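Work Package 3 (structural annotation) set out to generate three-dimensional models for the target panel prioritized at the project kickoff. During this period the team completed the workflow that converts sequence records into discrete structure tokens, so that structures can be stored uniformly alongside our sequence database. As a representative example, we reproduce one entry of 186 residues exactly as it appears in the project archive.
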Amino acid sequence: MTTREAMSDLEKPYPAPSPHLPLQEGLGFRLGRLARTLRRRWASDLASIELSPPQAAVVRALEGSPDSALRELARTLASDPMNVKRCVDDLEQRGLVSSGSRAGDRRPRVLSLTDGGRNAAVEVNRLVREQETWLSSALAPDSRRCLEAALDRLENLLGIHPGGWPHDAEASAPQNPETQNPERKL
């Protein structure tokens, strides 16, 4: 099948699932299974540097945005602020994160990586590159572009934005793909 034929197949409307769709054939089930499997693999990789996936996410986020407030960090990670706080507290006890205040600012504490945290970030980024290389090698370039486009579309429909989750429940409610942009199909 040529790329042109594959693209035209992607533009065709997908038939509605039958009322008795077997569990393992459901797209949601398959996406969830894939996400859980990738997360377990990621956790196993991170165990070599004694970090959990949430801790690695905090380290990566703080590397990209030093001096972030806890709520900013939680938004970036699309996580509950209390869960992020527990994770940050653990990283702070381990000497990977420090907290302080911005000069002349009495607002909540800001978070930064320590030297140990920056070293951990180097190791996390090495593992990220290994994972991305593995994922990229599993897909042909055209397949990867199609997958990225499909993920972008689903994230858009669910209100997931690159900077984190939307701030209100209405914005995060799943949208009907036909009313969002009927011209654009996956």
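The beta strands are 68-69, 97-100, 110-113.
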